[in-house]
Amino acid sequence: MSQANYTHNHALTPSAAAIAAADAAALADMDRVVSTLELRDITKKYRVRGAGQLTALNKVNVTVSSGKTVALVGQSGSGKSTIAKIITQLERETSGAVLLDGQPIPRRGKGLRAYRQRVRMVFQDPFASLNPTQTIRHHIERPLRLDHVVPSREVEGEVRRLLSVVRLDPDAVINRRPHELSGGQRQRVAIARALVNNPSLILADEPTGNLDSKTSAEIMRILEVLHSRGNTIILVTHEDDIAQHAHRIIRLRDGKIHSDEATLRSKEKAVV
Ligand SMILES: Nc1ncnc2c1ncn2[C@@H]1O[C@H](COP(=O)(O)OP(=O)(O)O)[C@@H](O)[C@H]1O
Ligand SMILES: [Mg+2]
Questions:
Q1: Mutate-to-test residue for ligand 1 from 43, 44, 45, 46, highest number of ligand atoms within 8 A of CB
Q2: Which domain holds residue 8?
Q3: CATH no. for residue 209?
Q4: What's CA 60's distance to the chain center, in Å?
Q5: 77 in ligand 1 pocket by Cβ < 6 Å?
Q6: How many domains does the chain contain in total?
Q7: What pLDDT digit, counting tens, does each position of 12-70 carry?
Q8: Which residue owns the Cα nearest ligand 1 atom 11?
Q9: Which residues keep their CB under 5 angstroms from ion ligand 2?
Q10: Is residue 41 in a domain?
């Protein structure tokens, strides 16, 4: 997709000047920390009432290097979300190890908190992950304050910058609540929140799963912009055309890696 294909179809789209400013800020971010995430022999078993144990992941090995876009594809139930939850440590693996830059990731305390700042997740349903009673400002301000990302007086500016990065007009959305936005706009807010503190890796679990194809394309375009800034993106999807945006496609089947291949895009230097 090219810049020209990005559609300005609603009143909340920012001006060309705002986009240019956001892009300049994005380029300034490019010296982020380089990192490699590795899943080594990851097995995850769930206890299922009345049915013993279910093996959701069976000795999965994956290494994702910095700056790549990886699509994780597979049918429903193949283990995609389980991988996502183990990478973000919302779930603990039954056996195996998760390594960041060769080091086992921290399991608790400050170390785990720091890890979670580097690895952020975007969920399928932004309605479920955004609080209906809170403004868009609140959703982005809160993690900025909790993590002391910028001094207090700079929080408002940073909220606005992050909204611009995801192509939302800060003035138009900042005081609104999630239900006052479209599905695509809500997902952009979720992505803006995931960008707090400039994470090394963004893990998006079916981020376009609830969106129509045009809105999905807009969200993909934003993920591509993030990738061009140097963010590593892991995109979980069951749609092959969405997966083709990635440099690499990992296919899961019944909790195992079925294939792991580079796409034609892997030869492209710049994705956007
Ligand atoms: N918390 C859980 N308890 C029990 N079984 C689970 C749990 N989470 C996922 N599973 C099971 O693990 C398998 C993989 O699920 P999941 O990773 O969500 O698949 P996908 O995201 O590819 O649809 C499925 O069989 C699912 O039912
Ligand atoms: Mg899933």
A1: 46
A2: 3-34+66-88+108-267
A3: 3.40.50.300
A4: 21
A5: yes
A6: 1
A7: 455 555 555 555 454 444 444 557 899 999 999 999 998 899 999 999 999 998 778 89
A8: 56
A9: 80-81
A10: no
